[in-house]
Design a protein that fits this description.
Blueprint lengths: L1 H8 L23 E5 L2 E4 L4 E4 L14 H11 L10 H13 L5 E5 L2 H16 L3 E5 L17 H4 L10 H4 L2 E4 L4 H11 L3 E6 L15 H11 L3 E6 L10 H6 L5 E4 L10 E5 L1 H4 L18 H18 L4 H27 L5 E5 L2 E5 L8 H4 L4 H13 L2 E2 L8 E2 L6 H18 L1
Parallel strand pairs: 3-13, 5-6, 5-7, 7-8, 8-9
Antiparallel strand pairs: 1-2, 2-3, 4-10, 9-10, 11-12, 12-14
Helix pairs in contact: 2-11, 3-11, 7-8, 12-15, 14-15
Length: about 425
């Protein structure tokens, strides 16, 4: 596989089409995957791995669900792209609005980055303000305006900014520590009337999973309303996974705009942004904020999204007892997995922090609790690298970065999770 990767480096920058895939923070050559089914991935040499990366989140129901594949085969016979309006995209917008009460209108795009970029432009156009506020370590795709103290791949490589972002544009982005109400109040008092939007993941996952402290999101909502700042929740990762209506349903805090992706497309390139009717009506052609995309609402991706939402609604539906029980059983086995993992860490007195919420988690190789970007950066990345490769050797594929979330799908049965626990406990013994 290494030979194939070296050949790839001659025709693809660094041999990868997204930086974290290069294994830069864990060392070695990346594993080249050939196929996926259920909770598993297989590499080009035929080795099988339990997959906790799940394509960085969207595979809530595992790889290549049989029913989804069947739906898509039928859809492919009808065409791959029209570049026109379709009934399916209207249906999908209606379904999204049913799950997210604050989303009165929604526009489909092709990636989370595109959703965020469009939401930022819309916020600036609607408010007439230029500045954007984000959290330290918050990553929202490779949008110029937001590559300031960013997380995810940038955290992995220790690069807080990116070349190619004009200094003048960078000055329009403010950054504040996550979970710090005092710092938040200070920055709003100083800059509040100049800020168009505050964008954040309600549960940051691109510095690793970090939970908001009690009352923090409520304070964010209070201050943004007070200063006329649009609150944008980036739920590209948490949307549909933390709850059918995302983290905003889980915490009962409603933003003005929401960015969705990942799970929405079920592994296909599809995302969305939506929110208040008056704000969304500022988009062209009705309004004067321009946004467009030839493949937006692509019929194949839209069909996948409709299937995903039908499954999400079915699995969580309170009226469909058997399907609701399937979701309860899923979350119960995930929690049991976390309890067993936490028990092992405690028993061995390991300097490791398990941060988790529902079916997403991060193991921080850190002696102290991780509550923000500063504490996350204190993690021992060399130990994580040893742990990662020990897991890989034992047939467990994790996100190849200390500063990322791992994901569990409905396809991860009790038996699969027991195998994963065995691999993790063995790998932890090799990390120290």
């Amino acid at each position: 596989m290494n030979q194939i990767f070296q050949e790839g480096k001659r025709v693809i920058p660094s041999g990868v089409n997204s930086p974290v895939r290069a294994f830069g923070s864990v060392g070695g050559a990346p594993v080249l995957m050939a196929k996926g089914k259920g909770p598993y991935l297989w590499d080009e040499l035929g080795k099988r791995y339990i997959d906790f990366c799940c394509s960085w989140g969207p595979l809530l129901f595992g790889h290549a669900p049989t029913d989804l594949v069947m739906h898509l085969r039928r859809e492919l016979n009808r065409g791959t792209s029209f570049g026109t309006a379709t009934a399916k995209e209207i249906k999908l917008a209606q379904e999204i609005a049913l799950l997210y009460p604050n989303i009165r209108k929604v526009r489909l795009v092709s990636s989370g980055t595109e959703a965020v970029m469009s939401a930022i432009r819309l916020a600036r156009g609607f408010t007439g303000r230029k500045k954007i506020l984000k959290i330290d370590g918050g990553y929202h795709g490779h949008v110029d305006s937001l590559l300031i103290k960013a997380g995810s791949g940038l955290t992995t490589f220790g690069v807080p900014d990116s070349a190619g972002v004009p200094e003048e544009l960078a000055k329009l982005t403010l950054s504040v520590p996550f979970n710090d109400v005092e710092a938040l109040e200070k920055i709003f008092k100083k800059e509040g009337k100049k800020i168009a939007a505050f964008i954040l993941e309600p549960i940051p996952a691109n510095m690793g999973v970090v939970l908001p402290k009690r009352g923090y999101l409520e304070k964010v909502r209070e201050l943004t309303k007070e200063y006329g700042v649009l609150l944008i929740f980036d739920e590209v990762i948490t949307g549909f996974r933390v709850a059918p209506g995302g983290a905003q349903e889980h915490f009962r805090v409603r933003p003005d705009l929401t960015c969705l992706g990942k799970i929405l497309g079920g592994g296909f390139p599809l995302a969305a942004f939506g929110g208040r009717r008056d704000v969304m009506d500022a988009l062209a052609p009705q309004g004067n904020v321009y946004q467009a995309g030839t493949l937006s609402g692509n019929p194949i991706a839209t069909r996948a999204a409709l299937w995903m939402i039908s499954q999400i609604k079915g699995k969580y539906a309170r009226k469909k007892l058997d399907q609701a029980q399937a979701a309860v059983r899923f979350h119960a086995r995930v929690e049991n997995f976390y309890l067993e993992l936490q028990s092992y860490i405690y028993k061995k007195a390991l300097p490791v922090q398990l941060n988790s919420v529902r079916s997403m988690f991060t193991l921080f190789f850190n002696e102290q609790p991780v509550t923000d970007f500063v504490s996350a950066k204190k993690s021992n990345t060399k130990r994580f690298a040893r742990f990662f490769h020990a897991c890989l050797k034992r047939g467990l594929y994790l996100a190849p970065s200390q500063f990322e979330a791992n994901f569990i799908s409905f396809a991860h049965t009790d038996g699969v999770l027991k195998q994963a626990m065995k691999a993790i406990s063995g790998a932890l013994s090799k990390a120290f």
